[in-house]
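New to this. Comment on this protein:
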Amino acid sequence: MSFQGLDQLRARVPDLRSPVRRLMVGLIGIASFAAATAVMLTVDLPWPGWTLLGQFGVVIVAYLLVSQFFWQKTRLQTRYGDMAYRNAFGACVLTGLPMIFAAIAHTAYLPGERAVTGGAALVLWMIGFYSLATGLALWARAVFTFGADNLAMLYVYFPAEGRIVDSSIYGLIRHPTYSAVVRLGMTLGLWRGTWCSIAFALFMPIGLTIYLRLVEEPDLIERFGEAYANYRQKVPAFVPRLRDAGRFHRFLVSGK
């Protein structure tokens, strides 16, 4: 059984049709993750007090890379035609996204003493466990609900081929996949328990909101007009409103 949206993605990215090419694609992502990790460790080992400098530096570079996928769309389409998506995703997203994941993973082992102990640490652990459980559930729901083509943002370069996903989650939060990433990052930051890890965990939704406002959501407003702008005013980005908590948790369990 083919994963939803995978055939559409393969049709636009010839590399995914060959096992050897798929391996090469995976190696690019692994190399990007490893390079970002090496940069952060280069800061951690001699200057542990500046650990956030390396982490934020990696995140900023990663966001700038991913942003080019959107900002350079017209230029790349003019230059490469139907291959623009393939080239843009490989150069921008496939390199930038693993760097973001590396920065999030770094939160689990960044240097420093635990800042919170005793009962407060137990509270943070419980909040972290909730973030982990809901984050994993939301990620799984997003992967199987939205499909490979939507997760890989094929619709940005081929809007006519975009599939409309009719899911109740969009009435609760605007960006389910990003919400899952934020929750997993919060888990690592709270469980590590240093001031730096907690600070990075709390910064994640702020930084992601800035990115969405400057990069992805302008593209959505361009495509859907005032309807999306109104939708953005009514529905939170990552965390459902308190009155919608029951519906949110039902979606995690049942997908409805």
Remarks:
- Residues 118-151 form the longest helix (34 residues).
